[in-house]
Amino acid sequence: MQVYIFNSGVDPAEFSEIDARIRAGIANLNTLESLEALRVDRLRSDAQEEKPYVIYPVPARDDVSFEQLIETATQYRDYFFTIFISDEISATHYKRLVQTGGAEWVPRHNAAQEIADVLWRKPGVATPTPSEGRKAAIATFMPSSGGGWEFHVGSGSRGAAENY
After folding, report:
1. How far apart are CA 53 and CA 115, in angstroms?
2. Is residue 158's pLDDT more than 70?
3. Could you give the CA distance from residue 70 to residue 131 in angstroms, rounded to a whole number?
């Protein structure tokens, strides 16, 4: 799994501190100079490779709008999965960010552990479709004439149920 960290304008001392905390848990963390460079690299690579992850600390400044983060997540979601690090955000903003399908948010104060959890869950990775050999089953509980219940399992076709 490829994991990058990108400095989007965070104070150098703060970025170094965040970088050191994250590197303690992620040995193969690479520094990324430009999101666009990674996008171009992904266009040239094998499309079957797992999407890389980009850790994106957000500057704690008033000039950074949440709309810019949504736009970034949407623009690059086909090329990599972005993990934004910032102070608290509203539930509405979080929902909009996650709905892009290309990003997650973690709080600045617990970023290292939260990032490890996100990487473990591997969001942004397509889940495999069920195999052709597997069939759906329908299970029902039906009342019986003796006052109890019967358990029926079937494939959905009429008359193909088994009683238990």
Report:
1. 10
2. no
3. 35
Tokens of 44: 């040239």
Q: Which residues contact 60 (CB under 8 A, 6 or more apart)?
A: 10, 14, 86, 87, 108
The structural domains of the chain, with segments of one domain joined by +, span: 3-121, 129-164
- Return the amino acid letter for 56: Y
CA dihedral angle for residue 62, residue 64, residue 69, residue 75, rounded to 10 degrees: 160
How many helices (H) and strands (E) are present in the chain, helices listed first?
A: 5, 8
Contact at 8 Å (CB) between 148 and 161? no
Q: How many angstroms separate the CA atoms of 109 and 126, rounded?
A: 30
CATH for 3-121 (3.50.30.60, 3.40.910.10, 3.40.50.2300, 3.10.129.10): 3.40.50.2300
Residue 153 CA to residue 162 CA, distance in Å, equals 5
Q: Tell me: pLDDT of 44 over 60.
A: yes
Q: Tell me: the pLDDT tens digits for 98-134?
A: 999 999 999 999 999 999 999 888 765 443 444 445 5
Length of the chain: 164
pLDDT, tens digit (0-9, with 9 covering 90-100), for 14-42: 999 999 999 988 878 999 999 998 988 88
